[in-house]
Amino acid sequence: MANSRLVIKVTAGADAPERCSQAFTVASVAAASGIEVSLWLTGESSWFALPGKAAEFTLPHAAPLPDLIETIQGGGRITLCTQCAARRSITQEDVLEGVRIAGAQVFVGEIMEEGVQAVVY
């Protein structure tokens, strides 16, 4: 599994909590398993790039989002969509440490690499 790579694009946030939680959970489990993870925050999940926002998210019987984010960052990367950030007036200075802002060209480059599996939530 060490050579595996998983790219996950999550579009849901508090508007669709189960779908959102599933994306973060899958990314976290993959990272904890030694799979290199790239989690892309788009749409309403964009807010979770900001400090404190993940702690506001609750879903019964789900792991806390801040814990999942910590695990993901330990085994991969979190990226905030450029356009989604701009629509929400989020800048690089606003986001959690380690979160980058990048656009579609970078996303396409990641998913087109050999051996990459991609999932959209």
Structural notes for this entry:
InterPro entries: DsrEFH-like, Sulphur_relay_DsrE/F-like. It holds the Pfam family DsrE. The protein contains five helices and five strands, in the order βαβααβαβαβ. With 121 residues, the protein is of the alpha/beta class. It has one domain (5-120): DsrEFH-like (Hypothetical Protein Ychn, Chain: A, 3-Layer(aba) Sandwich). A five-stranded parallel sheet has the order 4-3-2-1-5. The protein is globular. The mean pLDDT is 95.
What is the topology?
Blueprint: E1 5-10, H1 17-32, E2 36-41, H2 53-56, H3 65-74, E3 76-81, H4 82-87, E4 99-102, H5 104-111, E5 116-120
Parallel strand pairs: 1-2, 1-5, 2-3, 3-4
Helix pairs in contact: 1-3
Nutshell version of this structure?
With 121 residues, the protein is of the alpha/beta class. The protein has 5 helices and 5 strands; from the N terminus they run βαβααβαβαβ. It has helices spanning 17-32, 53-56, 65-74, 82-87, 104-111, and strands spanning 5-10, 36-41, 76-81, 99-102, 116-120.
